[in-house]
Write a structure and sequence with these properties.
By secondary structure, the protein is mostly helical. The chain has a domain at about 20-70. It is built from four helices and no strands. It has helices at about 5-15, 30, 35-45, 60-70. It starts with 5 loop residues before the first helix and ends with a helix.
Amino acid sequence: AFIGTPEYQQHKDKRFRAGDHPIIAENEAFLLTRPAVRKEYKVAFEATQTLYYKNQPGFDEMLSRIQEWVERL
């Protein structure tokens, strides 16, 4: 498994810019707790459905999956 390995941490360190909050369980960008922001992202996400070969996962389903792993990310 990649998550939790030193390689994962190196990848995460590279991907998060200075000033970004690297603790995903506390990072609003992954939690989307503000309803207006969440709705805006949902609309933008659903607008990309033609990019998927089969079915696009649902926005709420995707966020639920993130929540399943958020403490380990």
